[in-house]
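Exercise 7.
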Amino acid sequence: MRGFILGVIVTIVVIFVAGLVMAQFGYLPTNADATPPSFERRIAMNALAASMERHPPRVTNPVPPTDNNLIDGMKIYTMNCAVCHGTLDYKPSLLEHSMYPPPPQLLLDPLDDPEWHIYFAIRTGVRYAGMPAWNKALSDQDIWKVTAFLSRIEKLPSGVQDYWKKAYGTSPESHRGEEHEQHGAHEHHD
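Solution. The predicted structure, written as tokens, is:
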């Protein structure tokens, strides 16, 4: 039994050292538009999910979800987030397939995370994902407004939907289901 345990430990150490050597000599691809091996994706996504569950404080949004605050959140999203996460006229992000991991397309696949989770991701960013920490560029109130907008995309009040339609020529109601199906079909063909 002792030999078996020692063999397992030696195997783990050899795999770890081999991985370090491969990384140090440049054998691991680092280009953001390459598809990484499945083990790397699995490790990275599991680590991200575990970290995002562990670190954010469970806080309540102090900004009330009024029409004006949601419209402000929509405007902030358009100026700062749409280039990676998709535009409000439902055009795909130009950078969707230029980054790893690809940025989630938040209009085509709305978030179902709690607000504290969304706020933390926006405020602190996501390491190794190209998602910057916005806490130096946006006020906490603006981050909360974007959070409120993103967490309510599928159930925005009619006044906010009217503003969206006037400003962007379309609305979330007119694209529900249709765009998601098209995006999903597009994803499977890549």
